Amino acid sequence: MRDPVAPATRSDAALAKSAAKTLADATPAHSFRTLLNELAKIVRNTCRRQGADGTHMTFEIDTTENAKQRHALDLISAIRL
Asked: Which of 44, 51, 53, 70 lies 20 to 30 angstroms, CA to CA, from 78?
């Protein structure tokens, strides 16, 4: 059993990923900040027909997430309690 007070050590796989800055599938590895920046690209646009004023109906369109964003969102939903 690992000593709970001992400092954490990175695995060989984690060290290799950090050095190469790529994942096993050769895609770029994200830091927490770059992953948040990537997720921030998912937006909801409120649309109204051209020339309409504020009294006309609107509709919303969400951008479609890419594979990396979908994977991150799946992982996040898996840890929610």
From this structure: 44
Q: Which residues contact 54 (CB under 8 A, 6 or more apart)?
A: none
Report the C-alpha gap between 65 and 47 in whole angstroms. 19
Given a cut of 90, whether residue 63 has pLDDT beyond it is: yes
Say if pTM beats, i.e. exceeds, 0.90.
Answer: no
- Residue 60 phi/psi, 5° resolution? -115, 140
Question: Cα–Cα–Cα angle for 30, 38, 79, nearest 5°?
Answer: 75
Q: What is the token pair recorded at 8?
A: 């954490």
CA dihedral for 30, 31, 33, 35, sign (positive or negative): positive
Q: Report which secondary-structure segment, H or E, holds 47.
A: strand 44-47
